[in-house]
Amino acid sequence: MSRVTELPDSRECSEETLVARAAEGDMAAFEELVMRHADRLFASLRRFGLDDAEAQEVAQETFLRAWRSLPRFERRSRFFTWLYRIGFNEAQRRLARRPAAGAVVSTEEQPVDELPDRRPGPTEQAEREELRAALRRALGELPVDLRAPVVLRDIEGLSTREAAAVLDLGEPAFKSRLHRGRIALRSLLTPWVATSDL
Amino acid sequence: MSGPRRLEFIRDHRWVPRNASEYLDGELAPRERQRVEHHTRDCPQCRELLAGLRALVEALGRLRGDEERVVAGAVLASVRSRLGQLPREPREPRD
To answer: What is d(CA B44, CA B42) in angstroms, rounded to the nearest whole number?
Structure first.
């Protein structure tokens, strides 16, 4: 008696199953992985400093490389962490090719009036938006090697271990960069941070 | 402040700022955490540093929802159109 085993619809599969099936060449499973992760990866790349077009290109490139490499993916890390690693490597290469946009500068070197004014805005929402803009601007001024740990740990919410693995750093080196990045950001945001009013 | 206490204060005043991030991330050993907490009770400068970093980390966490866009369909379309042209070779780093 023969028994027919039907594969479940990709949309209903766990990520683990999808990764296993994609590694064996199942395109539908891989496409489901793209649909599940592309938006988040794109957002991470934008926060890292790529513009919309670059972030989309890098996201595409990341998935193409992932497809080719999935047979070698040993599943010691989460699939998304592995994607981050591919994506952030490519993003770092692109950002490194850009003209030096701005080394870290202290508030003494950068006129304070370029940072957001701490005067109350018309509404709390407006103040929040002003702060977000200040944070994004300050992040953009950080050197890439300090920005990446801050984005991965503090914005993306990865654990120290995961974020260090994405950047291919040992944990002590990662922690050192993260701390230096935070200190530099704090300096850039002095008017906001002085009273812990972030 | 007595001599030994003053020396301890100075030593901790150098140590705490270097370890402030690990403290905030909950990655210090209990004894080291106590060292931070003991020092910051007496040191307004280090207390302010910790408060500022804590506020910064919280504010960064609130950026998590920013930049969210629905691009998955477009990314998938592009990936689909290019997949047929690419060989599947293992070239990426191991996880």
So the answer is: 7
Q: Does B91 touch chain A (CB under 8 A)?
A: yes
Contact between chains at A198 and B59 (C-beta distance less than 8 A): yes
Nearest CA in chain A to B20: A179
Q: Does B29 touch chain A (CB under 8 A)?
A: no
Contact A168, A92 (CB under 8 A): no
pLDDT tens track for A58-109: 999 999 999 999 998 988 888 999 999 999 999 999 998 876 554 444 333 3
For residue B46, the distance in angstroms to the closest alpha carbon of chain A comes to: 13
Spell out the domain ranges in chain B: 3-84
What is the spatial distance between Cα B17 and Cα B46, in angstroms, rounded to a whole number?
A: 7
Complex ipTM? 0.82
